[in-house]
Amino acid sequence: MPQIQIERAHQLGLPTARQHAHHWADKAQAKYGVDCRYEEGADGDTLHFSGNGMEGQLRVTATALALQAELGFLAAMFKDQIEAKLRAQFDEIASATA
């Protein structure tokens, strides 16, 4: 299965990065019907997502975001577009100010 891996360093700190991850999850659920489950931890969080031909996780720490996703058969045909959109979204988050 095709995979997408995106890593972005940031200077947001965990509380602000966590807020951005929750916002990203809310948009994914509302716009694309993706199911999300968020697990908070002391040193970092993991957002698990699945649906609409994609499943994976987003690891959130005080200094980085790391997304790993696997695409299903139909979504794989649009891998380049999906990856470009995700990269733009995470570029925007990583460049945000705390």
Describe this structure in words.
The protein is of the alpha+beta class and 98 residues long. The protein has one domain (3-91): 2-Layer Sandwich (TATA-Binding Protein). It is built from three helices and five strands; from the N terminus they run βαββββαα. It has helices at residues 14-32, 73-76, 79-95; strands at residues 3-9, 35-39, 44-51, 54-61, 64-71. A hairpin with a 2-residue loop joins strand 4 (54-61) and strand 5 (64-71). It is globular and about 35 Å long. The relative contact order is 0.27.
Features of the shown structure:
single chain, 98 residues, alpha+beta, TATA-Binding Protein, five-stranded antiparallel sheet, 3 helices, 5 strands
Fold blueprint:
Layout: E1 3-9, H1 14-32, E2 35-39, E3 44-51, E4 54-61, E5 64-71, H2 73-76, H3 79-95
Q: What is the CATH topology descriptor?
A: TATA-Binding Protein
**What is the overall number of helices?**
3
Q: Average pLDDT, to the nearest integer? A: 95
- Numbering strands along the chain, what is their spatial order in the largest sheet? 1-5-4-3-2
- Strand runs, count: 5
* General shape: globular
The fraction of residues assigned to DSSP E strands is 35-45%
**CATH C-level name:** Alpha Beta
For the record, the CATH architecture stands as 2-Layer Sandwich
Helix fraction bin: 40-55%
Please state the CA-atom Rg, rounded to the nearest Å. 13 Å
User: How would you spell out the order of helices and strands?
Assistant: EHEEEEHH
Poorly predicted sequence stretches spanning 5 or more consecutive residues: none
Structural category is: alpha+beta
Please summarize the sheet with the most strands: 5 strands, antiparallel
